[in-house]
Amino acid sequence: FPSEKIRNFSIIAHIDHGKSTLADRLMELTGTIKKGHGQPQYLDKLQVERERGITVKAQTATMFYENKVKDEEASGFLLNLIDTPGHVDFSYEVSRSLSACQGALLVVDAAQGVQAQTVANFYLAFESNLTIVPVINKIDQPTADPDRVKAQLKSMFDLSPDDVLLVSAKTGLGLEYVLPAVIERIPPPPGISDSPLRMLLFDSFFNEYKGVICYVSVVDGMLSKGDKVSFAASGMRTTKEARIGDTIYRTKTTVEPLPGFKPVRHMVFSGVYPADGSGFEALSHALEKLTCNDASVSVAKETSTALGMGFRCGFLGLLHMDVFHQRLEQEYGTQVISTIPTVPYTFEYSDGSKLKVQNPASLPSNPKYRVIASWEPTVIATIILPSEYVGAVINLCADRRGQQLEYTFIDAQRVFLKYQLPLREIVVDFYDELKSVTSGYASFDYEDAEYQTSDLVKLDILLNGQAVDALATIVHKQKAYRVGKELVEKLKSYIERQMFEVMIQASIGSKIIARDTISAMRKNVLAKCYGGDITRKKKLLEKQKEGKKRMKRVGSVDIPHEAFQQILKVS
Ligand code: GTP
């Protein structure tokens, strides 16, 4: 295909505005997939994506299209479509995919209008110099108000109402104008075809049968079947070596490597341990396989006194972490215990030394030198919401130590807020809270911002006087008492009564800030059937053994693994 017959484009949108449905329709229209093939959302391939109805990994499809409207005698066009994830955690994936494109369809729901990720995705595309084709989708809905959405697109992004396409990916209305607009408005790839070959590796995944599969965009030159290629930065035998952003060139030629991508920034860290002690090897194997498919996760071995041998994993965000855990279980059958997620902190001591902390347990509880400063990462959050909820959201942001940067009206009923917030405050349940105080009408997105100084302390949890490393957390001093109290209460509700009294304490350094006790159990499990029915006794013992498997013994106290997970919710 000559490059003037090629269009590389992406579909970007706020979550649920219909990207994947639109992608499916376009593929049907071009005969790439059969109509009504029975498997909705062809490009959403992972089981977790189907279950959650979200796109996690960008997917690519190549379509052939005869553009009969414009170019009668002309041959077909080659259209490369990249479907991208909509959620904030995956914006890194979005920006990588965009680098392979010259244009993007910006899809907006006709009833919901511009939302937080519409804004974020628009700017990602705009900064990559892409031609933006605005598409208002779901015009079949009774509550659709395309004129209002057109006005929002004009006021927010200066997109002309005349350029907006109106479609329904569901009924097919207006779809025939989408691909002609792609061909007319989006420029062909700019590369020079008679220059030496340069390709940008923008994504890769691991296929059980075929091995590593790379997605590349040909930046310069031509590639033919049978050509031998080399990688500028690595040798490439595994996906780990298939470094995203690497330049691929024809073997034995010399080329200037392409700029590549900025490295991934891990925002959330958590320990991942096998739920039963024996599963370390299996977990290790599963992690290796899974990171082949998701190279944006970092993995390092660590050991915990409470949980044994495991790994410290770094994620792009909390949803990314959840999805990763779900994939570990579903695709590899591994049961894991994950520890309290933490963001990366930096501490400075009076001797001038600095400590970067990805695991709260690694921060000394009683350090030799005094902490003179500590820093935590922040984000710039964008929130779009109906104006009647503004008060509640401002309160929520204040409670989360946020600082207001902007407050504007998008139109008569909708407000655009910008806040700088500590990442720690939004990592766990901010989005849930936001949805609950706005009855689900607010949308939210964030981007990394700089570290800021903060008054941070380590909070230890002790069981019968012994600190449980996997339950340690780092909190803002002002919140330490509240969090300590809540952690103790939560733990009390999860730990079953033992044969002896269990004391639960929260401490900062050597100071106890909260405590409670679980009184001793009076009878053991067999007490009531001594001398009784032997099968019943056996059954009880079995049951007890089953329960034990899912416990972690800390000192002499058994902690059910739900406790480790439930405790995540306290912040
Ligand atoms: P993510 O991949 O999670 O970011 O979502 P998405 O933007 O790909 O949205 P998706 O295509 O999964 O569509 C979300 C929901 O909207 C689905 O239930 C679709 O059936 C529905 N939907 C998509 N297009 C239309 C449309 O034109 N009209 C109506 N009424 N519903 C639509």
UniProtKB/TrEMBL annotation:
One Gene Ontology term from the biological process aspect of the record: translation
Query: Cross-referenced SUPFAM superfamilies, in alphabetical order?
Result: EF-G C-terminal domain-like, P-loop containing nucleoside triphosphate hydrolases, Translation proteins
What topology does the record note for this protein and the membrane? Peripheral membrane protein
Report the GO terms under cellular component: mitochondrial inner membrane; mitochondrial matrix
Give compartment(s).
Mitochondrion inner membrane
Which keywords fit this entry according to its UniProt record? GTP-binding, Hydrolase, Membrane, Mitochondrion, Mitochondrion inner membrane, Nucleotide-binding, Protein biosynthesis
What are the EC numbers? 3.6.5.n1
What Pfam families does this protein's entry cite? EFG_C (PF00679), GTP_EFTU (PF00009), LepA_C (PF06421)
What is the role of this chain? Promotes mitochondrial protein synthesis. May act as a fidelity factor of the translation reaction, by catalyzing a one-codon backward translocation of tRNAs on improperly translocated ribosomes. Binds to mitochondrial ribosomes in a GTP-dependent manner.
Q: Tell me what this protein is called.
A: Translation factor GUF1 homolog, mitochondrial
Protein's organism: Cardamine amara subsp. amara
What phylogenetic lineage does the species belong to? Eukaryota, Viridiplantae, Streptophyta, Embryophyta, Tracheophyta
